[in-house]
Amino acid sequence: MALVAEKVSKRYSGLLALDSVSLELPPGRILALIGPNGAGKSTMFEVLSGMRKADGGKVVLDGTDVTELPPWQRCRLGIARTFQVVRPLAAMTVLDNVKVGAFVRHHDASEAEAVAREALEQVGLADRASQLARSLTLLQRKQLEVARALATQPRYLLLDECFAGLRAAEQDVSMQLVRRLADQGLGLILVEHSMRIVMRLAEEVMVLHHGKKLAQGTPAQIAKNPDVRAAYLGARDVVG
Q1: What average pLDDT values come out for the chain (240 residues) when binned by 10 residues?
Q2: Whose CA is closest to 178, among 165, 189, 164?
Q3: What range does the domain containing 18 cover?
Q4: In the listed set 153, 178, 202, which residue is the last one of a domain according to the structure?
Q5: pTM score > 0.85 for this model?
Q6: DSSP at 231
Q7: Least enclosed by CB within 10 Å: which of 73, 213, 216, 231?
């Protein structure tokens, strides 16, 4: 049981954005995907979620090859994602925003609402259900984005810079949520630039550079890797 990318490649015109990159995410694990801007992190999310088709390699979900499937089918099979720029349906209530995700699996409105309310409870927004989405703070909008993904009832969740723009205390709240989700058996991949968060949250880290896998290991191993320091982290001490 795992979400697997096998030697995935993706080219945009003359640019090789991913060059035969492989990864494996078991349930209940947190993998951080890091690297400089343009390293291929977002492209890997696009390929895993089906929003872009790989030019080489394949994506396998719990033993099933989903390489040719569109995003909505992959979502029904258990892959969900969030987006770096959160765009809630501002004129709709928080609950209705999340029900949009629940309708992926539940066509009955009452069933969808029950799933949506459970997702809101998970992220800490249950008391905001009747508010309009436009009234939420940045932290709450990011929580709403996660709730909408959770309402699709995924087994694997791709989180695209879900901590960006948050204050340290708000990041801590979000980290607690991510850890709870992993403890419940959800496999999570984070695209994240904050090494503070990566070091505290991830169990494994993959470093991409110019579309290739530069290194992979525990956060401590990555922090000490001289190739990673040269390409991404620089000379500063990232553990602390």
Answers
A1: 97 92 97 91 95 96 97 96 93 97 96 98 98 97 97 97 94 96 97 91 94 94 88 49
A2: 189
A3: 3-78+155-233
A4: 153
A5: yes
A6: I
A7: 73
Distance in angstroms (rounded) separating the CA atoms of residues 206 and 218: 9
Residue 23 contacts residue 48 (beta carbons within 8 Å): no
Which of 131, 153, 175 delimits the end of a domain? 153
Q: Which residues on neighbouring strands pair with residue 23, listed in sequence order?
A: 5
The answer to whether the beta carbons of residues 8 and 46 sit under 8 Å apart is no
DSSP H or E stretch at residue 175: helix 168-183
Residue 28 lies in a domain: yes
Token pair 């703070």 is at which residue? 137
168 within a domain of the structure (yes/no): yes
Mark whether 124 and 175 lie in a shared domain. no
Quote the tokens at residue 147: 């709730």
